[in-house]
Amino acid sequence: MFAKTFKGGVHPRDRKELSADSPTVRLEAKGDLVFLMNQHIGAPAKPLVNVGDRVLLGQKIAEAGGFVSASVCSSVSGTVKALNPHVNQSGDEALAITVGNDNEYEAVPGFGEPRDYEKMSADEIIQAVADAGITGMGGAGFPTAVKLKVKDGVKIDYVICNAAECEPYITCDYRLMLERPEDAALGMKILLKIFPGAKGIFGVEDNKPLGIASLEKVCEGSERMSVQPLKKKYPQGGERMIIYAITGRKVNSKMLPADAGCVVVNFSTLIAIADAVAKNIPLVRRVVTVTGDAVRSPSNFDVPIGICAQELADAAGGFDTDPEKIVFGGPMMGAAVYTLDIPITKSSSCILCLKNDETKNTEPTECIRCGKCLYACPEHLMPIELKNASDRLDYKKFEDLGGLECIGCGCCTYICPAKRRLSQSITMTKRYVLAEKKKGAGK
Ligand code: SF4
Ligand code: SF4
């Protein structure tokens, strides 16, 4: 089938060959599990346990702290050892619950028992997703139950499974396409029950022919599910980009995908939905890619949420050379970290360890007006003008130029021959403008 795409974007080397052929290996935690309360976008979760409490595998240990929030379930049985701040992947400290693993894996009653989703109403399915604490597992961490509760009168035409996995290096979704395609199809059928008029489409980049074939096999004979190959291009898996590529519909910062008749769910998240609804297993584990040229054996691990990232690096054989740069996520949108003493969260897709920090000695020079950043921007913005407005602190101009539409993809910085830090400046200014607007709204 013809591969669809969007205008703009860049073509970084994907380096997925490092870990793509490594089957997923299940790993249990040796040390304590640390559950951050802000693993998602929105209000932090509120702890439901105290130090000294015994908790069970699958037990809700923190509840959603607001409408846009998510609960947290324990990935092991054991005893609560601490409720205190812990460093997260942004380098900030956030409240966390630390559980000492008793290695018994005693689960809450009903854990893993099959459930007939066909007999459940849409509201019951959404509640099951909320109870399981499911959030977007592709990186953004938006609470999935909130995404599925569309406003009355809004008709959803497309449920899009975002299986583009366009960030270089990351292969966790790809492995799941090969290893659990039936569960992905089950997750899609469950979502199509919520949206009876919708079609379910798996959008996969065409650099994953085996993934496409695997999903086509489970969609065979279905009138409502199909696979749409997408061109390999970054950021093909951006929400707005995948919606446009598959449906031709446009979404901007003032809209939700539902306003364009779409619901978009990441591939790992779809499998988490199948586990939660049809098997009564909350989101307590995920697949994480450990890769990069510093890692001895790049791998994909199925790990409990809350495990320390250092344990994953050790399981991948450790390092040939101490990495100069460690990134949580992919090289384009991930967060550089200074320690591996960071717990894996629901949205930790990758730990990228690089021998050399290629950006460390790059000094920006004057703009040569080549226009490359304009062609690369998937939002059709003028990154150089936005950076100029940012540098002048001209927030009105920044907004007039559409700066709030920036999705922070980094294409402009990546393509710029003068090594100008375009996306970094634009993203900071956007954050500032949005924070000021929020303050103004609160007055
Ligand atoms: S970071 Fe923003 S301005 Fe730069 S290419 Fe991406 S969307 Fe465009
Ligand atoms: S890509 Fe860089 S050098 Fe070229 S126009 Fe944009 S900012 Fe200037």
Structural key phrases:
17 strands; Rossmann fold; alpha/beta; 19% strand; four-stranded antiparallel β-sheet; binds iron/sulfur cluster; globular; 443 residues; 13 helices
Please summarize the sheet with the most strands.
6 strands, mixed
Name the shape in a single word: globular
CATH secondary-structure class of the domain at 16-20 and 133-279: Alpha Beta
Q: Name the strands of the widest sheet in spatial order.
A: 1-14-13-17-15-16
Helix-strand sequence = EEEEEEEEHHEHHEHEHEHEEHEEEHHHHH
Give the CATH superfamily of the domain at 16-20 and 133-279: NADH-ubiquinone oxidoreductase 51kDa subunit
Heterogens: iron/sulfur cluster
CATH architecture of the domain at 16-20 and 133-279: 3-Layer(aba) Sandwich
Distance between the termini: 53 Å
